[in-house]
Design goal:
Shape: globular
Structural class: mainly alpha
Distance between the termini: 46 Å
Order of helices and strands: HHHHHHH
Number of strands: 0
Radius of gyration: 16 Å
Strand content: under 5%
Length: 156
Amino acid sequence: MKNSAILANRFREVILNGVWIANTNFKNELTTVDWKLATTKHQNLNTIAVLAQHIHYYVNGIKQVFLNGNLEIRDRFSFDFPEIESQSQWEDFLAKFWKDAEEFAELIEKMSEEKLLENFVDEKYGSYLRNIDAMIEHSYYHLGQIVLIKKLLKTT
């Protein structure tokens, strides 16, 4: 199996359908939460909705690099989102998240071995491979937070 296919599958595992590493994934965790729980604040922690939007922000932003070579996202904006105020807004966000995640994975699958080793936008960011790996690791980090916040909210 090509490295690009392996990476795409690893990305799908954390976002869409895997259980091997964390015994869950974003889709499993977020589709079992309504908008009220997703937007409930616990002490000074980010909400489930904000963490999900944060990961989507990077998925969509890096996807744009894959499509047009431009890096337009900025870390300083990666937690700035309008409030989700209804179940339909939450469901619309989730549908966009799953769609963008699948498109992201499909773009990874199409990458050549050479492309994976090229600089990602600028040499300072490392290779495409490094950035895809970072996206997967970053996603697992926040998935763990979401799982813990769900447990905290359900016990309080």
